[in-house]
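Shift notes (night). Ran Cell division protein ZapA while the centrifuge was going.
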Amino acid sequence: MPEIDITIAGRSFAVACQAGEEHFLRSAAAMLDAEAQPLVAQMGRLPEGRMLLMAGLMLADKTAALEDEMRALKSRLAELEARPAPEPQRIEVPVIPPQVEETLAEIAARAEALAQKLDENAPAVG
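Came back to this:
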């Protein structure tokens, strides 16, 4: 079982852990140290037990708040997932935009006018 040294509020501790768990222990120690540092800065030198107790309680308080928030979010998620799916909305998109119809009507009128002119100007075959 490996033993690693951690530092909490400037004090070193030798702590044993399972093989492969060293990273997690260092991470937890860093969190505890982050809570202990302000305590030591505010109150000065504290007995080791009191400093660790206060830092642990501060972490527990943060953890409890996060657990409450997580419960509320899970409840909200369950509520949202339980809602029936909304009715699909029917959206109609015209295949041919209205201005295309107007343009085609103009082209048809011009074509008819040209055809009529051609008929009038064409020599009679016969």
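The first strand starts at residue 3 and ends at 8. Strands lie at 3-8, 11-16.
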